[in-house]
Specification:
heterodimer, A: mainly alpha, 12 helices, B: mainly alpha, globular
């Protein structure tokens, strides 16, 4: 594990840069645990002071220190993204592995459902969910709703790997030695697809944080939970840009872009690492 | 030819399934809720006033009928489908008595225009430059473009639209940032109107293209750099075939097919992006209509837009998939 990370850091500039960005973001969210304020506190510092040594990211019109507020926001956003990613990964793994291993009718049915889900525009459906639940909209509900829309791409990817695993000799051998379908899938096939799952998890975290930001900014989530999206929402509510309080918008937007690019770089460098051909060409120096 | 007919049939079957699943989601999400939309609407309407209980009861019945909520779940389900089938979602509650379908048809062209122009530009640009970058791997400016495109690509549409809006509306205000055309300009086939529509479309399209191009670029570059190592390309190079011809008709043509399939598969996401961009730029399309419907608590309009956008996206994906075999005869065989 450590040697892989060391290799990646040495030979893969994208991985190194992505790791640095994500470490910064994670450090920022970890700082929320030592924050002098609690997340919901308002009117504790002077209004609208620009960034200074005392308030590195300035203060906003709700009397909050933007820096400490952002530590809570990025923590919640990251946790949210991870929750959605883990939930949807479970669905993708179950569907992808079963479909690829069993084949035939099961495969056809599962893949038709899968392909229907792929073309769905998630945004109108999530707006519909918000419209129905309104004030009852919670963090968990939104995570479940997004997870149930975010699995089909990866289920297809996992299926394609499972299809080729099915024809390998060790699968036949495990079948003959009396392993059940569930055992074969979990003990034999799962380890093969895990690297891909890790890489796609990053993309999924990106996707869900992005959607969460979008929904929050329009006010379609629980706006009292600080996330990157709700931070921008409140800044817009107080017309921060018109009032010249640019630091209230610029820092969350910058932070979230850092997160996106960091996760994206990690995901592509992992993808490359999984594919040995591109890894060799990189290490050899010539393409 | 029989192969193509079979393919079309299978693909239409898929389309029916998508619409079926989508409309079912729309129906069950709206019915599986613990909150009664009728009660919520009445509570909102009578919040600041005293009301006659009898009037409230009458309103309740009227709203139940309007929302299609009378009868058992099964009856409602059948009624919902029969309304979807004819695209009739009743009158809009916030713009009473304009029918929901009229509002949707009015907004649809704007979304369609924005979406198709931006997608086309992003797709063509990404594939063209991606193909070149995969073929001429040492070219520095193409490499630099690759870095920029992949840096922009993971940024969600909302954030990108917002950044573009701030840059061109606040830092360097040169283009209109809201609406679809100048407010007092009469609609018509006049040059001034078209110029205004064009100017208003530049920023939304730009922000969609900035995000959209990267994925096509990266995909195309990977495909092309794979194909370039194939024997037939080496053979063509040794045989002295014009390099531009190799690139265009030997390499790019083969690499284009997965990209067309990719376009069909990612339509849902692209639609998402367009809808959100509309909201940011106050563009009068489906996205804006949807958001305003939610703010206004317009039940029938929200359900109408959600259902119609699922159907529209599924239909667009169907059209792309039906064109695909014309480009690649191998598709129908599989």
């Amino acid at each position: 594990m450590f040697s892989i990370v060391k290799d990646l850091l040495r030979y893969n500039r994208e991985f190194a840069l992505g790791a640095i960005l994500i470490l910064l973001v994670v450090a920022m969210s970890a700082a929320s645990y030592v924050s002098p304020y609690s997340a919901g506190m308002q009117y504790v510092v002077p209004f609208d002071t620009p960034p200074s040594w005392q308030y590195p990211f300035g203060t906003n019109s709700r009397g909050q220190d933007v820096f400490w507020q952002l530590t809570f926001a990025i923590r919640n956003s990251l946790l949210f993204g991870l929750t959605v990613a883990v939930l949807s990964r479970v669905v993708a793994l179950v569907v992808g592995l079963t479909s690829g291993y069993l084949g035939g009718m099961v495969d056809r049915i599962l893949m038709s459902i899968n392909d229907s889900f792929i073309v769905f525009p998630p945004f109108p459906i999530l707006v519909l969910v918000y419209f129905i639940f309104k004030d009852h909209m919670s963090w968990a509900l939104l995570a479940v709703a997004m997870a149930s829309l975010g699995w089909p791409y990866d289920a297809r990817l996992i299926r394609s790997v499972a299809l080729s695993l099915r024809t390998r000799e060790f699968t036949t051998q495990s079948l003959f030695s009396g392993m059940s379908t569930r055992q074969i899938l979990v003990e034999e096939h799962l380890p093969y697809v895990l690297p891909i799952v890790f890489a796609t998890t990053m993309n999924n975290v990106n996707w869900s944080i992005g959607l969460e930001v979008t929904l929050s900014v329009i006010g379609f989530t629980n706006i009292d939970t600080p996330t990157i999206g709700t931070t921008i929402y409140w800044a817009n509510q107080h017309t921060a840009l018109v009032a010249g309080v640019w630091w209230w918008i610029a820092f969350p937007v910058g932070l979230v872009i850092m997160t996106f690019i960091g996760l994206y770089l990690l995901s592509i460098s992992m993808n490359e690492y999984i594919d040995p051909r591109s890894r060799l060409s990189r290490m050899g120096g010539s393409a | 030819m029989a192969g193509y007919a079979l393919y079309v049939l299978r693909r239409i079957g898929q389309f029916v399934l998508v619409v079926f699943v989508g409309v079912n989601i729309a129906f069950f999400v709206t019915h599986a809720t613990p909150i009664d939309p009728v009660t919520a609407a009445i509570a909102a309407a009578t919040r600041f006033s005293q009301s006659d209980p009898q009037a409230v009861q009458m309103t309740r019945d009227a709203l139940r009928e309007l929302y299609g909520l009378q009868g058992g779940l099964w009856q409602q389900y059948v009624a919902f489908w029969s309304r979807v089938a004819v695209a009739d979602f009743g009158p809009s509650l916030s713009a009473f008595p304009t029918p929901v379908s009229t509002l949707i048809w009015r907004a649809m062209p704007w979304t369609f225009g924005l979406l198709s122009v931006a997608t086309l530009i992003a797709w063509l640009l990404g594939n063209l430059l991606g193909g070149l970058a995969g073929y001429y791997r040492r070219n520095l400016s193409l490499k630099a473009f690759g870095v920029i495109a992949s840096g922009l690509q993971p940024i969600p549409n909302y954030v990108m639209a917002f950044v573009v809006l701030v840059l061109f509306g606040y830092v360097w205000p040169i283009l209109p940032i809201t609406g679809s055309s100048q407010i007092n300009l009469p609609e018509g086939w006049t040059f001034a109107y078209f110029k205004s529509v064009f100017e208003h479309a530049v920023l939304p399209v730009l922000s969609l293209v900035l995000v959209g191009t990267g994925a096509w670029f990266i995909g195309m570059r990977a495909l092309v750099s794979n194909i370039v190592t194939e024997d037939y390309v080496t053979f063509a190079e040794l045989g002295g075939v014009n390099r531009r011809r190799i690139l265009i008709s030997y390499v790019m043509r083969n690499a284009l097919l997965p990209q067309v399939t990719g376009l069909a598969l990612s339509l849902g996401l692209i639609f998402n992006g367009a809808v959100i961009t509309e909201v940011v730029f106050g563009y009068p399309g489906l996205g804006n209509l949807l958001i305003r419907a939610v703010y206004a608590g317009d039940y029938s309009l929200v359900i109408g837009i959600a259902s119609m956008s699922i159907i529209a996206v599924a239909f667009a994906a169907l059209v792309i998939d039906l064109i695909l075999p014309l480009l690649d005869p191998r598709v129908e065989a599989s």
